[in-house]
Structures are given as structure tokens and as C-alpha cells.
Automatic annotation (TrEMBL):
Localization annotation: Secreted
Tagged with keyword Signal: yes
Protein's name in the database: Lipase-like C-terminal domain-containing protein
Classification via SUPFAM superfamilies: alpha/beta-Hydrolases
GO molecular function: hydrolase activity
Species for this entry: Aplanochytrium stocchinoi
Domain Lipase-like C-terminal: 41-358
Taxonomic lineage from the root: Eukaryota, Sar, Stramenopiles, Bigyra, Labyrinthulomycetes
Amino acid sequence: MGFPLMRIALLSMMATVITAQNPENVVVWVHGLFGGQFDGFPYASEFSNRGFHNIIASVGPVSSNWDRACELYAQIKGTVVDYGVCHSRDAGHSRFGTDYTGQGFYPQWDASQRIHFVGHSMGGQTIRMLEILLQEGSGCPEDTNPLFTGSGNWMRSVTTLSSPHDGSTLVGLLGDGLIGFLKNLIVGFAGITDETIFEALYNFKLDHWGITKQPGESFNSFWNRLESSILSNDNTDLAPFSVSEDGARKQNNLGRQTYPNTHYMSFATERTRPERTCIFWVFCWDYEVAENGMFFLLRVTAGLMGNSEVAVEKRKNDGVVHWESMKCPTSSSQGKDNCRRYNGNWQPNQWNWIDVPYFDHMQVVTTNSWNDIFNYDRSAKKLYVDHAQRIISLNNGNLANSFKEDYGLAGQVVDMSEYDQSSEINKWHKVSMASSVFMGLLVVGAVLLSARKLRGRLRKEQETDSQEEFNELEMQGTVESRGESIPSSIIGIRDPAVSAFASTKKSMDEGSEVSPKSMYDL
């Protein structure tokens, strides 16, 4: 999520109140885990260039999908955030949050003025949770907010990018290391390297938990306080549980997989390739490894998610989410009944998924310095241009040929090969490989230095032990240092120099000739 500061202005221009606008031209963009005020959708401009009005939402970056859905609803409608009576009581936080009264992006939004939603990663789950609450209600008799009373179908279309509909295997694989990994992600992607940036741009939106950043508090201090209070794998009302396989299964069982008259599209990204290792061509194991060009922090997690211990169907991934989970929600009683590969005919009430190869989890939504230099974002830009046109066709009622011609014969796969084989991508691969080699050399150097220090420490300990043994024998009277003989038993002590000295002195005392080698050993 590398962030140019000018993106702040972009957010303020895009997220303006829309009072009189055709709802079919309104698109709400929802960020994923650890997205927020510093984040944006740089390709959203491809929609605005085609007549759409963009709403860039900013919900809790580490909050649960339930809480984020409530915040999203309040931001669009312009109300006080209501997390629900029963939910708040069960979760142990306040019922109400930020007051957006008079600041709603599209206050007239309802079942008669349905709008479009696009979400990246966890943002796709958040959109689906909002849809479930609007369609099914909260199930709590004490909730009177229209959000929780089953108001009906308010969504024209739902588009998800790299979303963990069935959760991510990474959560379970990292276990207790998940929280530390998330911290590294926010620092690595967001570029939060100084407190000024953190102070100005990042808001965890945890007021309902009673946690706010104190004036002058550093990022590390705030994070440690957050981690010691509520941020843990055991808290089921925060993001780590929501994006886990168990959390996704729980959400999927709250409502239907799809609803009538809503169009669903998912883009499943992948940046790993299959590998096989064999011993004597008898014992073999298969796994997935990161492709060249994947963001360096994700290369490790991609390998972890693709290891041979993971179920075969869950190995292909984009560094954060396994590919199968991105296609559509299946971990519910409905299974895969409403899940199909997109064939150019975008029908409602079923998930239509499109494969997006050569993209890791972040490349589909953001550019970074390398991408800017090598024009790597051209293929991602094409994806957004095409989907904007697809939604235009949907609004016009032209579904049979909704951009089928741009995706080849079957209209199933976004063809990025022409970009991946370009000179720009080859340059990117070379940079990535050079970086990997450099990091490898650093690791080797560190190992050699550690080995050298260890060898020196062992030698010093050996010399100390030898001297102590020699002193102990001398104190026992076995060794006499005033010209008397030294018994042969001492020759076996560990210090070579002392052994040579003892052997030579014994020979001299016995009148034997001392060989040149013995003298040399001294």
C-alpha cells in the first residue's frame, strides 16, 4: 500500500457528499485489512473518467467485518455508527461510535436507489456482511436501526478483489505470529516510518473499544498497548478472526451466498507456481512457490501457504489469500451452487469469478515505486477500465455481451501475458532477483560472522578448560614444576601446547634425545 502523499487530496475529492446523482453511477470502494486514511484506490479514477461518482470509505482497519459494515452504513447514510444492542453487549464494547450526521456520502441510499460496491481483500467480506445485515437483519429484537431490521436489497452489484470469502489459511499457519506479521505489513506497505506520518494519516477507529492514540504517543507504543489490550487471536470481534477460515465460515452462515437482483463478480489473484522435489525419484512432494516480482514481504508467506502440508486445493495463492477462497463464498450450507467461472454473461444471483494471474495481493489495488518506474500497473489499469465498462453495460441492460470480446474466446481469463513478457516486467524481475541475491548475501554474511564468533568462543572456552585442568593437577601434586618429572597421564590433556611441553620435558628428564618435531611443537 505504498502511499504518495498526494493521495490524501485524491481521497478528499472522491469522498464528497452526493446529493443528486443517478444511483447506478455511484460506486463505493471499501479497503481491506489495515487500509485506512492513508490508503486509496489509485485506479478508481478509471471509473470517474467514465462518469461514475466514487465514494472511498474509511472503516476500522483492524475491526471485525460486523463493526466495519456498521461504520460503512453510517458513512454512506450520514448517521451515528450503531453496532447493534446484542452484538455490542456480547463483544464487550460500546454500542455507538462516530457521528456522521450531516456528512453522509449518499444519504438517499435505500432499496429504491441501489448502488455499486467494490472491495479489496477484507473489504469484500465487509460488503457482504453489510448486505447480509440489510437482507437478514441482526436477529436481535432490541435493534431498531434500519440496518438491522431486514430492509431488503440495497446493492446493484458487488465486486471483490482478492477477497478471502472462505477465509485465509495464512491466519492458521501463522498462529501466534499473526499479530507481528500484521504489524510488519502496515509498516512495509503503508510506509509508516516516522511518527509524523502515523499521527497525520492513520486512525485505527477503535473508539468504541475505548482505545485512542494519545498525543505524542509513538506508533510502537500505541501498537504495544493495542496488542496487550484487545488485539489477539482470541478476540472474535476483530479482523484476525474475521479473515480466518473459522471467522469466514461463521459469517457465511449468517445469510445467503447471493441474493436475487444483485450481480456478483470476483477477481481471484495468484502469483505462485507449482514445484516438485524428489529424493531418488521415489519420495516426492509438491508445493507452490512465489513467482518473481512478488512483493518481498509476501514471498515468505506465499511459500508458507503453498507448502506440501497444506491441502492441494489451497496452495495456489497471492501471498495473503489462497486462490480458491477468492472465487466465491462456499463454506456455508449453500456450498458451490452459485459459483461459476465468468463466461461473458454477467447474470444476477450467482458469483462470477475471473482469474487474474501474475498479480500478488497488493498489486491489484495499488502501485508502488517499482511499478511506477517500470509501468507495471498497466495491466491492473486495464482490469479496472474493463470492469468499469462492464458495469456500464450492466446499467444499460446489456448483459449478453458485457465485455466478452476483450477476454478472448471464452471471456474467462484476464490475459496479462503480454504485459508480463514485456521489457518493463523483465526489468522488474531483474530488480526483484537482484534484491533477492543481495538479501541472500547479507544472510550468508551474517551466518559466517556468527560462525566465526562461535568458533572463537569455543576455542576460548577450550583453552580455559585446559588451563583449569592443568592447575587442578598441579595443586594435587601430580605435576611438579621445579624440574621433576611430569607423569605421562598429563600428556592427554586437551591443550596441544601444554601436551607438547609435557611430552618434551618428560623426554629430557629421562635423558632421551628430543626430536626436532618435539622442539617444533613447543
